[in-house]
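Before we proceed, please read the two lines closing this message. Let me know whether the structure tokens fit the sequence:

…
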Amino acid sequence: MNPPHSAYVDESMRVSAGLCLMAAVLVPPVLAEVYRDVLRGLLLSNQRRLHWRDEKDRRRVQLIDAIGALRPCGIVIVGTGLDAARQERARRKCMERLLWELGQHHVTDVVFERRGVDLDEGDRAMVVTLRGRHAMTPRLQVSWESPENEPLLWIPDIVAGAASLAEAGQESYWKGLGDELSVQRLDVD
């Protein structure tokens, strides 16, 4: 039997392309500190965290090479048909699908990137609703962390960014991450 994993989750919105992406990277707890050390080693002197949208192309190649060497596994939900006025609705649909998918794997806890008190409270309410509808396994423990405090949240940020560019036809970053990341699509309209 596979050991339990923790899932670290972040998202990327490409409103102009009508896309909402949510990435979960699975990390075995026995490797968590090793991954954190690798990630901290990638920080530049003026950085407090890695963030895909802040990086230039050459630096992105460096990040993809380092993350690809970790052989990340996980799931990316690609929500299509995003209406700019209904971004939170699209995010909730992706979140519902992702939590269901994670329940099908050996995941014990899910850590989302913190987005602020009100938005996190909306996510918590969503989890309560999903549990009430039996739309997610009760064994999943869900929490929210700041990416400044939890480097493992940098991996799904990079994965979501690479997947977003792949959706636009720039696949080189995505290919550099290996083949252990699955992509699931759904209409969020």
The CA atoms of residues 7 and 85 lie 29 Å apart. The helical segments are 32-41, 57-69, 87-103, 117-132, 154-167, 172-175. The mean pLDDT is 94.
